[in-house]
Amino acid sequence: MTFELKALPYPSDSLEPTIDARTMEIHHGKHHATYVTNLNNALKDYPDLAAKPLDQILAHLDQVPEVIRTAVRNNGGGHWNHDLFWNLMTPGGSKAPTGELAKAVDAAFGSFDELKAKFKVAALGRFGSGWAWLVAHQDGTLAITSTPNQDNPLMESKHAILGLDVWEHAYYLHYQNRRADYVDAWWNVVNWDQVAALYSARR
After folding, report:
1. pTM of the complete model
2. Is 201 exposed, middle or buried (0-12, 13-18, 19+ CB in 10 A)?
3. Which region holds residue 99: left if phi is over 0, alpha if psi is between -120 and 50, else beta?
């Protein structure tokens, strides 16, 4: 199997002004593309491993040969994270969770505003490059976590339903060093239908 860079699910300028078109073009067409290329290069001599779904590879990194484990972790994680990330955003989506997901948010955090506040703490507290995540447990409860670099909750046997890229390449052209402003604005483009679908798929 050769892993591939999928097209963005919307035009690169459609998330403006939250995320500008140039950032999307570089982020997807350069950064994400490089992860895919490097992942395929790392796996080229391991066809049996390359034939597995990426989520299974990342969930069992201890089974990846040590000589390529770091490359698979970094580039496979980058590919998986970004495939998820693009689909967690949409132009003109709803502004808050609804239904069972909204009930779970209220149960875990007290309110949607409190979820956003705690998520922001995780996003700003991640030193250097990494991600902030909302994860769902099998019983439906929710938790916030963060990971360094291109690590993700899969590597900790957790089910991610929402993730925010806080690498500087995700926001620096538009927000410069103002990561907090990027985090605040990002809620305007979250695809809550996709988050709800991932929440339902936790079982």
Report:
1. 0.95
2. exposed
3. left
